[in-house]
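To the wet lab folks,

You asked to see what we're planning to order before we commit. Fair enough. Below is the target structure as tokens, and below that is the sequence we designed to fit it. If anything looks off to you, flag it before the synthesis order goes out.
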């Protein structure tokens, strides 16, 4: 039986760093408010108009390829998760494919927001186990900073988000005890409008109007408290379900990487699961919420820091707009 293993990982964030204090040029906010509510200290933003998400993903991919000792030509499939595609259509996967110089390789875009990397991992795992593809490049990449509301109504969302890209190169292993043991995905579209971007939209006619622009409907909007409440409930639930499906418990977990939306959310998740701080990894302090990129960025930092040894039990979990959420259990 084949399983899916992580061959290598990589990430890239833009050079430009914005501290909380620097955000005060646009918003009535403070370092104290942002740190206290979210744990965030800084985030990386692109030079506006200079770098697209697929450019960040390209740099992250080159790092992962070099670590794997692979050429881009060896990739036989791209799965690209993002809520901030370079263009409305086509998807960002084809732009990354062209930049990598590998025409013909299929490129699938995944639109599951903060859970995008987990949805992508689930698809990649199924394709690898079925033998359809042998070297899948799985990407989570976002450019939020070009789409934030820099007016007074945008501060609640604006201070939380960062730009970046994280990737993993996945392939088969014949060792049944290792690799991705399972993925567990969920969604509840009844809450779609609690965290969404209304316009431009094919559901509307015209897709975008001057009135929409004046009302700021082109910007992301969030009911923060509702999102918070659901995130702290759904992530631990899905971790418990994922572990139980293998007769494992939280005591077996060596490392939990949760989506990085808010340090307070992740502290509550760890507390509910009974996980001590040294079995949980957080980096939101330095990157903010990079949506589909947060899990692969955190994973790569853990790999590079030697936090994962062969045989360790790794659990990934995420929650986001949709709502969508899920978990993955991986024997490293
Ligand atoms: C966004 C979040 C940090 C806000 O924290 P909160 O404690 O719920 O704060 P509230 O939204 O109730 O706002 C409290 C006050 O701070 C103000 N405020 C909001 N954003 C602010 C900012 N950036 N700076 C200063 N004040 C701010 C509000 O206007 C409000 O003021 P009021 O009491 O005078 O009305 C929190 O709700 C959260 O993290 N939610 C989940 C976000 C998330 O996970 N998003 C992504 C999902 S993947």
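Sequence we intend to order:
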């Amino acid at each position: 039986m084949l399983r899916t293993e992580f061959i290598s990982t990589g990430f890239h964030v833009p050079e430009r760093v914005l501290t909380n204090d620097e955000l005060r040029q646009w918003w009535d906010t403070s370092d104290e408010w942002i740190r206290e509510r979210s744990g965030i200290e800084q985030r990386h933003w692109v030079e506006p108009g200079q770098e697209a998400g697929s450019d960040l993903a390209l740099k992250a991919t080159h790092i992962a390829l070099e670590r794997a000792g692979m050429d881009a030509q060896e990739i036989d499939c791209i799965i690209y998760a993002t809520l901030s595609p370079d263009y409305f259509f086509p998807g960002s996967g084809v732009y990354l494919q062209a930049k990598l110089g590998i025409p013909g390789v299929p490129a699938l875009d995944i639109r599951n927001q903060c859970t995008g990397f987990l949805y992508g991992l689930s698809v990649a795992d199924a394709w690898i186990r079925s033998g359809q593809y042998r070297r899948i490049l799985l990407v989570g990449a976002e450019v939020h900073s070009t789409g934030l509301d820099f007016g007074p109504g945008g501060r609640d969302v604006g201070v939380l988000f960062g730009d970046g890209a994280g990737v993993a190169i996945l392939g088969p292993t014949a060792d049944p005890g290792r690799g991705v043991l399972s993925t567990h995905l969920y969604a509840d579209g009844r809450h779609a409008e609690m965290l969404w971007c209304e316009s431009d939209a094919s559901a509307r006619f015209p897709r975008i109007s001057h009135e929409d622009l004046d009302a700021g409907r082109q910007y992301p909007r969030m009911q923060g408290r509702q999102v918070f409440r659901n995130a702290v409930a759904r992530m631990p639930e899905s971790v418990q379900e994922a572990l139980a499906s293998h007769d494992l418990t939280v005591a077996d977990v060596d490392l939990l990487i949760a989506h990085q939306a808010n340090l307070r959310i992740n502290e509550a998740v760890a507390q509910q699961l009974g996980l001590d701080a040294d079995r949980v990894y957080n980096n939101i302090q330095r990157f903010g919420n990079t949506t589909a990129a947060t899990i692969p960025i955190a994973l790569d930092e853990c790999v590079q820091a030697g936090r994962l040894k062969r045989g360790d039990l790794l659990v990934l979990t995420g929650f986001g707009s949709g709502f969508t959420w899920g978990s993955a259990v991986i024997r490293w």
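Structural context that might help your review: The chain has a mean pLDDT of 97. DSSP finds ten helices and 14 strands in the chain.

Thanks,
Computational group
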